[in-house]
Amino acid sequence: MSETSDTPQPPPRPGTVGWFDLTVADAPKVRDFYQGVAGWEAHPIDMGGYSDFAMGPPGGDPVAGVCHARGANASQPPVWMLYITVADLDASVRRAVELGGKVLVPTRSVGKARFCVVQDPAGATVGLYQP
Q1: Is residue 69 within 8 Å of 8, Cβ to Cβ?
Q2: How far apart are CA 127 and CA 104, in angstroms?
Q3: DSSP letters along 20-76, please?
Q4: Single pTM value for the model
Q5: pLDDT tens-digit readout, 34-63
């Protein structure tokens, strides 16, 4: 997921947390906050008229995103959303619904990866991610 490393990183294993996103109204202000507090570097991602930010340790691979609450992300709450890596996104979505969950953000593609956001039976939200 990174443009900062010359060595390709293996995709996260199924069952592990593969990414975190934070969607907010003022992404540059929040980007600056995490640069100052956590020492993260920001890598702009062109979103067609504005940039979201992949964030991570200096010289390392990004571990999180700080995104604008615009476009497809307009309805996302301003909370850190974790994305759990799954082997088969379609099967995981079906199983989530069978077990009493709801799909909040239908499956979308980002590059070669796919993700969605589901709500568990208690009302908590989580992203599911298939590299």
Answers
A1: no
A2: 10
A3: EEEEES-HHHHHHHHHHHH--EEEEEE-SSSEEEEEESTTS---EEEEES-GGGTT-
A4: 0.80
A5: 999 999 999 999 988 899 999 999 999 999
